Amino acid sequence: MTDEGQSLLAALEGARPGEEPAPAHDRPAALVAAAEEQVRLRGLAAAKFGAYASTMYFTPDMVELSSHLAVAEYKLDRVLGMGVVLVEPMFLGNGADALVLSRDHCTLAVDPDPLTAALAAANARALNGGSDSAFFAECQDVAAFGGRGEADFIDLMRPPGPDGGHDPESYGPPLSWALEQVRTTGCGSIRLPPGLAPGAVPDLGRADEAEWISYDGEVQELVLWFGLGPGGRPGDATVRRATLLPAGASLTARGLPEPAVRPLGRYLYRPDPAVVHAGLVAEVAEDIAAGPLERGGTLLTSDELRRTPFATAYDVTEVRDAAVPPPRPSEAPRAPRTAVEFAVTAAAGPVTLTAVPVTAW
């Protein structure tokens, strides 16, 4: 982030594909490589951060583990309802939550990695119109940090381990430390990977609420919320919530029993992944008078079409034995290009369902 680096970065971003700009000719190879990598990462990050990405700084992990910016903005709205003023994001991760929080709160961000803290400070200016007056980044051991804020927001989003799984207690810091930190403060949240195995967070951390958030049909993260007020956690149960962005639709658990499975009807419904992760398929089934498709996993089915933001509806057009190859193109009836196939293990054997998304209501 030196002046030399900035001028090189600007030249590379303004160059045409395959062109090497003049400023790159006499610069150290390591500096050129770092600038080229930053241009590449900004290009990837644009899908999540939009126009802001062109002035922000990233590491590969920051891009990979980031949620869409709309997720951080949605969570800011929830934080505003908590009535806190000074917040402390810890273990910044991608830093987006801390940066968005600083739009409306005095934000003291703490991370043990000096690069993460430096990038967060630079990105605060990029994301907040050139001002970072409400954002303060400190590089220090978070476990030894003496909290001074009214709420703690801890980012434990981590890449999967070598076996492809997640063990929150193997994180640095472990989930148990993060839970104790937020419970001591009494207010805040913990950001986690959305696909944690059942039981990876015992009792969902006894949080007020566990919220799975998706954006455009892709699950983004799990958030454990604390300090939501008297309406946040009835009794001893953690509320499970699924929120779908950009629509802003939100669904909470109602303690329903598992619905009875059904044979295939005219319509199929594929619940949003946030609904599936939150364990709220039964709630969606009740709302649309559907039931789980026999041997169909989380797919729902019914003979009546009902609108819901929490599942994509499909009109079933063909049921074919999976062992029978599809007809050749010259023999096949013309089907819409949007047709989707579902592989289902029926009682008589595997079948393939062809269905078309319902677009007209």
Structure description:
This protein is of the alpha/beta class and 361 residues long. Helix content is 26%, strand content 25%. It is built from nine helices and 15 strands. The protein has helices at residues 3-14, 29-49, 60-65, 69-80, 96-101, 114-127, 175-185, 273-277, 281-287; strands spanning 86-90, 106-111, 135-139, 151-155, 188-192, 209-215, 218-226, 239-245, 249-252, 267-271, 291-292, 300-302, 311-321, 340-346, 349-357. The strands form two sheets. The protein has a nine-stranded mixed sheet, with helices on both faces. A six-stranded antiparallel sheet has the order 11-12-10-13-15-14. A hairpin with a 2-residue loop joins strand 6 (209-215) and strand 7. Helix 1 packs across helix 2 (29-49). The longest helix is centred in the first third of the chain and has 21 residues, at 29-49. It is globular and about 70 Å long. The N and C termini lie far apart (52 Å).
Structural class: alpha/beta
| DSSP summary, beta strand count | 15
Q: How is the largest sheet built, in terms of strand order? A: 3-2-1-4-5-7-6-8-9
Strand content: 15-25%
**Largest sheet: number of strands, sense, barrel closure:** 9 strands, mixed
Q: Number of helical runs? A: 9
Shape: globular
Describe this structure in a few short sentences.
The chain is of the alpha/beta class and about 350 residues long.
